[in-house]
Design goal:
10 helices, Alpha/beta knot, 60s Ribosomal Protein L30, Chain: A, about 270 residues, 8-stranded parallel sheet, 4-stranded mixed sheet, alpha/beta
């Protein structure tokens, strides 16, 4: 599938195919190998544009896309030379995973930072974690992080995929307002020592309630796995471990809920 630049009367870059879009939706190894991910919907598209993310290709349906600002941005990106596929409503619905197809989608370049290049500002709050059971939980965490003005996420290891379609959908566009760092535990510990950061972990056996602890900025909130909690290595990285009070007989919270409580407490303080 190709498109024609009528103003220049020449054939340009190949447009995205439906098969390629499906592969980006389903295959994480393909996403990571290409350094790309797929988004759909006006909210995600506008958020990606507003936060200056790089587009690899566009896919849209003239009949379905009625949002005026989204249509304007599609035209602008096409003029800038971004490859595109003009789809029929039926073709667009074939790649859409929403109840009501919006008519606009895009293939976007992943934006993963190296921790050595991250210099935390005085007012910043980061969240670090290694495992999330559900991509939707991670998307919810990103949404809360954006709502509280937090900086983003430090992903320890390769387990978490921030570009999983379920995670992206749960962010409601917040993904594009967050910085994503991927690193190792050793590099993380070196980074927090180098920048003298306060690291606060959360565990049922924490020494102080989360809402009675004094958070200082910049701060890193370190979240453990939902089933096993903080690892011993993660505990050693923390200056303080706080607890979230729960009634007797309950010993854990959903990770997105626990992380959101901590983020809002930092925001309040």
């Amino acid at each position: 599938m190709q498109y024609e630049d009528k103003s220049a009367h020449r054939l340009l870059e190949p447009a995205p195919t439906i098969a390629e879009i499906h592969k980006l939706q389903k295959d994480r190894s393909y996403r990571d190998r290409r350094g790309l991910f797929f988004i759909e919907g006006v909210r995600n598209f506008i958020a990606a544009v507003d936060n200056k993310h790089s587009f690899d290709a566009l896919a849209y349906s003239e009949k379905l896309l009625i949002h005026p600002i989204a249509r304007q941005q599609v035209r602008r990106l096409k003029r800038a030379g971004v490859p595109f596929a003009r789809l029929s409503p039926e073709q667009f619905r074939e790649v859409s995973r929403t109840e009501r197809a919006s008519g606009v989608a895009a293939i976007v370049k992943q934006r993963i930072l190296f921790i050595a290049n991250v210099r935390p500002g005085d007012r910043e709050c980061w969240t670090a974690l290694a495992h999330v059971r559900s991509p939707g939980n991670f998307g919810t965490l990103m949404r809360t992080s954006a709502a509280t003005g937090s900086s983003g996420f430090i992903l320890l290891g390769d387990s978490i995929d921030p570009y999983d379609p379920m995670a992206i959908r749960a962010t409601m566009g917040a993904l594009f307002k967050q910085s994503i760092v991927r690193t190792t535990s050793d590099e993380f510990r070196s980074w927090i020592r180098r920048h003298n950061l306060q690291v606060v972990g959360a565990s049922p056996d924490g020494a102080v309630d989360y809402d009675r602890f004094r958070y200082t900025r910049p701060v890193v909130l370190l979240l453990g796995a939902e089933r096993t909690g903080l690892s011993q290595t993660q505990r050693l990285a923390c200056q303080q471990i706080v607890r979230i009070p729960m009634v007797e007989g309950v010993d854990s919270l959903n990770l997105a809920v626990a992380g959101s409580l901590l983020m809002y407490q930092v925001f309040r303080s």
